[in-house]
Amino acid sequence: LGIFYKNKFKKTNLTTPDVITIHKELNFLKKNKVDNVCLEASSHGLHQNRLDSINFSAGVFTNFSQDHLDYHKNLKNYFKAKLYLFSSLLKKNSYAILDTDIPEYFTLNKICKKRKIKILSFGSSGNAIKIISHYFLGKKQIIKINFLNKIYNIKADLIGDFQIKNLFAAMLASYLSIKNSDKIINTLSKIRSATGRMQYVGNQKKSAVIVDYAHTPDALKKSLKTLAKQFNKKIDVVFGCGGDRDKGKRYKMGKIAEQFASKIYLTNDNPRSENPISIIKQIKKGCPRSKVILDRKIAIKSAIKNLKNDSILLIAGKGHESYQIVNNKKKYFSDQKVSKFFLK
User: Fold this and answer.
1) Rounded to whole angstroms, how far apart are CA atoms 319 and 210?
2) Complete domains list, the chain, with CATH
3) Do 113 and 100 touch, CB atoms closer than 8 A?
4) How far apart are CA 198 and CA 312, in angstroms?
5) Where are the beta strands (DSSP E) in the chain?
6) How confident is the model at residue 343, as a pLDDT?
7) Per-residue pLDDT averaged across 15-33, rounded?
8) Which residues, at least 6 apart from 250, have a Cβ–Cβ distance to it below 8 Å?
9) Digit-coded pLDDT (tens) for 232-266
10) How many alpha carbons lie under 13 Å from residue 130 in its C-beta half-sphere?
11) Percentage of the chain surpassing pLDDT 70?
12) Beta carbons within 8 Å of 100's beta carbon, 6+ residues apart
């Protein structure tokens, strides 16, 4: 988490900081001659009106699935918070960048038309980017697209088909800033996965080990399915669920692992103040054939040791995080560093 600008990095604690911090940082960026800013509008930040006084030129909606119900209480409230960017904050003649293939597109399209917000869309019915062809080549993806009525061939060094949708959204946001599609396409070869997002960390013989932040039912399902599709192999998974958060997703995530994973290792995520065994029991109801190893380091070690050539290992749930919270005590922990240690 933080602010990336001009090859520099400034750490922050929240994806969407408080209103004073946001304006302070935007002022800092302006003084450093940064004219275009892309920031994450979290559902908490939107609901708490942290972004109300910002004059947005565009908003991107990527997807919607169960998350943060410990705060929003139900999916209706969560969706309403997400929509606030489009229903209240974006002004007339600003832009909404949307995926035509998600169920929420119809609601977003209706809001944007009513409020005279211009739409740039991607997907099967996209008006700005359409996929002509797409296939996997190892850890890469080869895509042919129609981008604003020009045909381009792209080789993306990204794992996971859903990352291509994120790439398209980023391309359209970039286009609003520089209005040069050729320049954007020529930059794509430099794009890599963000830390902890479908991140390749190494190989155990012929089998890849991937770290991903997938910590919701939908994200876990998408990660397991896209890895099987891209590598044409079975998927082993190491995961848990956070404590003091949405308890309703635990059984669901277990059920998804049972359906889409080969070997399942249940372990601690960030149990926080909760009893780790209690969390694991709730997940295990959905995946009775799973193996329980509470110590995350040992779980990763075991999963790597037992990884076969016909399988891929997904270590899910913590992604970019460099800590673990157990008994409300924060200690250093990195899925990437632990994985690399046992891959030596």
Assistant:
1) 10
2) 2-190 (3.40.1190.10), 199-342 (3.90.190.20)
3) no
4) 12
5) 2-5, 8-11, 58-61, 95-99, 118-122, 129-137, 140-147, 150-156, 199-204, 207-212, 234-239, 264-266, 291-292, 311-316, 323-326, 329-332
6) 96
7) 95
8) 241, 279, 282, 283, 286
9) 999 999 999 999 999 999 999 999 999 999 999 99
10) 10
11) 100
12) 121, 122, 123, 124, 125, 126
Token match 């993806």: residue?
Answer: 141
The reported pLDDT for the residue numbered 1 is: 79
Half-sphere exposure of 245 (CA within 13 A, CB side): 18
Map tokens 């277990």 to a residue: 254
Length of the chain: 344
In sequence order, what are the residues at sequence separation of 6 or more whose Cβ sits closer than 8 angstroms to the Cβ of residue 110? none
Residue type present at position 269? D
Look up tokens 């830390």; give the residue.
195
- Spatial neighbors of 310 by CB under 8 A, at least 6 apart, are 207, 233, 234
Give residue 282's pLDDT: 98
| The model's pTM | 0.91
- At 67 the three-state DSSP class reads coil
